[in-house]
C-alpha cells in the first residue's frame, strides 16, 4: 500500500500513516511504519529527503516498476474474482 500511496504524491511518514488509517481502519504503529519505510528505501524502491523536521518520501523508478509488477501479479491472481463479482452485482470498476 505504501508504494501505491507514494505513486500518487510525495508524503511524509505521518501523512502515510493517516492515509493507511483512512483506507484500512487502523493507524500503523510508528515502530512498524518507519522500519518499513527504511527497508523500502534500502531496497531502492523509495527515496527520502529531510525538509525541516519532516522526512518526505517519494517513489523511485524501481518503486514504480515494483508497484506495476505487484499490480500485474495481483490482477493475474485475483482478476477473475473481480470480473465475476462485477458481473454478479453489475458493478463497474475503473482499472
What would you note in describing this structure?
The chain has 95 residues and is of the alpha+beta class. The chain has a single domain, classed as Arc Repressor Mutant, subunit A (Orthogonal Bundle). The protein has helices at 2-8, 13-24, 30-42, 61-89; strands at residues 11-12, 46-51, 54-59. The protein has a 3-stranded antiparallel β-sheet with strand order 1-3-2. The longest helix has 29 residues, at 61-89. It is globular, with a radius of gyration of 16 Å. It starts with a helix and ends in a 6-residue tail after the last helix. The relative contact order is 0.14. The model has no long low-confidence stretch (mean pLDDT 89).
Strand pairing plus helix content: what structural class?
Answer: alpha+beta
Provide the domain count.
Answer: 1
The top level CATH class name: Mainly Alpha
Strand content: 5-15%
Number of helices: 4
Which oligomerization state do the chains in this entry correspond to? single chain
Which stretches are poorly predicted, pLDDT < 50 over at least 5 residues?
Answer: none
Strand order of the largest sheet: 1-3-2
Counting DSSP E segments of at least 2 residues, the number of strands comes to 3
Rg, Cα atoms, Å = 16 Å
Percent range for helical residues?
55-70%
CATH T-level fold name:
Arc Repressor Mutant, subunit A
Global mean pLDDT: 89
Summarize the helix and strand pattern as letters.
Answer: HEHHEEH
CATH architecture: Orthogonal Bundle
Keywords:
95 residues, alpha+beta, Arc Repressor Mutant, subunit A, 3 strands, 64% helix, 15% strand
What is the element layout, followed by pairings?
Layout: H1 2-8, E1 11-12, H2 13-24, H3 30-42, E2 46-51, E3 54-59, H4 61-89
Antiparallel strand pairs: 1-3, 2-3
Amino acid at each position: 500500500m505504501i508504494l501505491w500511496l507514494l505513486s500518487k504524491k510525495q508524503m511524509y511518514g505521518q501523512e502515510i500513516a493517516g492515509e493507511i488509517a483512512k483506507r484500512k481502519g487502523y493507524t500503523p504503529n510508528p515502530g512498524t511504519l518507519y522500519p518499513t519505510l527504511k527497508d523500502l528505501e534500502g531496497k531502492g524502491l523509495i527515496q527520502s529527503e529531510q525538509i525541516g523536521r519532516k522526512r518526505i518520501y517519494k517513489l523511485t523508478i524501481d518503486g514504480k516498476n515494483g508497484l506495476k509488477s505487484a499490480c500485474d501479479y495481483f490482477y493475474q491472481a485475483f482478476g477473475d474474482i473481480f470480473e465475476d463479482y462485477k458481473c454478479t452485482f453489475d458493478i463497474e470498476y475503473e482499472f
